[in-house]
């Protein structure tokens, strides 16, 4: 259903939820989904707060952001740990092209609305 | 979209994620959705683990469990606190009757498969 590549944001207990929310909203607008990987309760707390904030950022674009938590076994310094991955995406898994075609306000896409330079010929 | 009444489970940092997952799965199967309210990173951690576990419990019934975090201002002992509410529901917001009509294994519904007594006449 989703493309093979989804950007993974790493969030720690010291991450600022507002900054993470901005990053989440940006990636979701551009590619339709983002994943967050966290280890530990403090990091998870910041990530979930960020999702609650990001919901408000993308809601005006018609995106209903939901989150799907799963366990992931990872290895850190040779030790096995269990991380939590949060898949964050539109409830209906709408892709950005469809969203852009309907209700997205393009003025919020500062990076993508710059005029494209023609290559020198 | 959803009925006016959704059961709210309170989860603490000492809650057992497996037990909470069982409760979540039961309520979702019966009423289509459940909410969890948590205060603090430890409680949130247990709740998110429980959702990851509950996903596996309800997936065979065709339910794709997603979670939607929101902030809720509450008062405890006269002090303002910010709780996190997690709305937990099928991605497509399917209601149990529709789900039962498709793929649910009724042997798991011990309480609802009892033969209904005819009223005395």
Explain this structure.
Two copies of one chain form a homodimer. Chain A is an alpha+beta fold and 121 residues long. Helices cover 33% and strands 27% of the residues of chain A. The first copy, chain A, contains three helices and four strands. The first copy, chain A, has a four-stranded mixed beta sheet. The longest helix of chain A has 18 residues, at 41-58. The termini of chain A are far apart. The model of chain A is unreliable at 99-118 (pLDDT under 50). The interface between A and B is medium-sized, with 20 and 20 residues.
Largest sheet of chain A: 4 strands, mixed
Class based on secondary structure composition and strand pairing of chain A? alpha+beta
Oligomer: homodimer
Largest interface, by Cβ-Cβ below 8 angstroms: which chains and how many residues each? A-B, 20 and 20 residues
Kindly state the mean pLDDT of chain A as a whole number? Answer: 83
| Number of contiguous helices of chain A | 3
Cα shape of chain A? globular
Q: Beta fraction of the residues of chain A?
A: 25-35%
**Gap from first CA to last CA of chain A:** 41 Å
Strand order of the largest sheet of chain A: 1-2-4-3
Low-confidence runs of chain A (pLDDT<50, min 5 residues)? 99-118
Give helix % range of chain A.
25-40%
- The helix/strand series of chain A, from N terminus to C terminus, equals EHEHEEH
């Amino acid at each position: 259903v989703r493309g093979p590549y989804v950007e993974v944001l790493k969030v720690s207990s010291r991450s600022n939820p507002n900054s993470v929310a901005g990053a989440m909203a940006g990636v979701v607008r551009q590619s339709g989904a983002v994943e967050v990987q966290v280890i530990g309760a403090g990091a998870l707390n910041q990530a979930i707060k960020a999702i609650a904030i990001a919901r408000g950022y993308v809601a005006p674009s018609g995106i209903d952001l939901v989150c799907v938590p799963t366990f992931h076994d990872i290895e850190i310094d040779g030790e096995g740990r269990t991380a939590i991955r949060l898949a964050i995406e539109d409830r209906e898994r709408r892709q950005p092209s469809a969203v852009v075609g309907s209700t997205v306000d393009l003025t919020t896409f500062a990076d993508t609305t710059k005029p494209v330079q023609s290559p020198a010929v």
